[in-house]
Input
Amino acid sequence: MTSAPLTLPDQKRIGMVSLGCPKALVDSERILTRLRADGYAFAEDYAGADVVLVNTCGFLDSAKEESLAAIGEAIAENGRVIVTGCMGEEADAIRAAHPAVLAVTGAHQYEQVVEAVHIHAPPSQGPFVDLIPQPDIKLTPRHYSYLKISEGCNHSCAFCIIPALRGKLASRRIDAVLREAEKLVAAGTRELLIISQDTSAYGVDIRHESRPWKGQDVRAHMTDMARELGGLRTPEGAAPWVRLHYVYPYPHVDQVIPLMAEGLLTPYLDIPFQHASPKVLKLMRRPANEAKVLERLKSWREICPDIAIRSSFVVGFPGETEDDFRYLLDWLEEAQLDRVGAFRFEPVEGAAANALPDQVAEGVKEERYARIMEVTERISAAKLAAKVGRTLPVIIDEVGEPDEDGDIGATGRSQADAPEIDGAVYLRGAPATLPPGAIVNATIEDADAHDLFGVIAP
Ligand code: SF4
Output
């Protein structure tokens, strides 16, 4: 019997449009979980919804436009729209563009969103609703889950308005984080993606307070959390992959590298360096930029040779000269990062960087963007080519239909690939019974600048 969602007569239905980053997706999941506990059902399309929630992103001006467009579409298609998320901080702009919205709430204002839903689509609680077990709602596939460990940020990077939107760092209790992780893994998660604005700062605001967990005290600290997460086991007894995102290279990051070498953590670090030139980093007011990063990358690779480093960089930041940009390119040649995302500097309303002198002309930004992409793609292609012939663990995301020869293809990711932002591993020879979330050994036969191709090892 398939488990179709249980809907009761008169049960109100909520539609959800979730925009923005993985952190926003986690917020959407939390809101939906809470609404389900309050007796709501969910609509798959606009027509079936009593009210539509739009979880917006307000980080870049282009994201704001996308958010306004999504609100407009929801109003046109359904008419009853509640707006939440990062752009919710700009209620006036939203109401000016879309006077028909029912309510606007900001990021992480779960209570307010739920209250707005109660007002505009009052729950019709039948006698049974409270007795129905309510599993958490997940918008990501069941085999991977984002785990948010804190909100907000204590830094003041010149191009960023997150601290203004989301406030200062507010870490979750360590026992709450570990309990959620344990529940997710018990429910089928095979890969945990740890997210925040600044993962290495986890617990600073609560003085790394300890909480009892499984008979011992565990500190709210990135290293202790990583060790505990590395000890989790799936119902089949396997270790889930645990991937750290948004890590700044503070000195204590060195302590998690041995955990990767031991297999407790996935050998992957997502460190948003944003630039390499000390002058530009200072103008950007980036945290932890004094660290001798190249030396540390070298020592991390000595401890854990398979570690994959992902990063992102901004080109054309105000004050970036040709010399600064060349410094960045030379640094990238030395650093040999595995995955790199590049962005052209774009002013964000309210960010300090907008007022900096020496703004870079758009044409120069384009030209530098093309050059950084050329360098990073070449490095990525060489790094992936070096994997040809190796057998690597691959987590399966999707299994296809048999082709005319009966061969089944599968798409997965190696430990060096986070979902949605990195590359994929395309596999031949998948067994028909292979489920998403399975971790298989795959022999790599070919590579391009982003992806790997291979066959499931016998
Ligand atoms: S570390 Fe900088 S870029 Fe990241 S959220 Fe904080 S202020 Fe923004």
About this structure: Residues 362-385 form the longest helix (24 residues). DSSP finds twelve helices and 20 strands in the chain. Residues 153, 155-157, 160, 162-163, 197-198, 287 surround iron/sulfur cluster (CB under 6 Å).
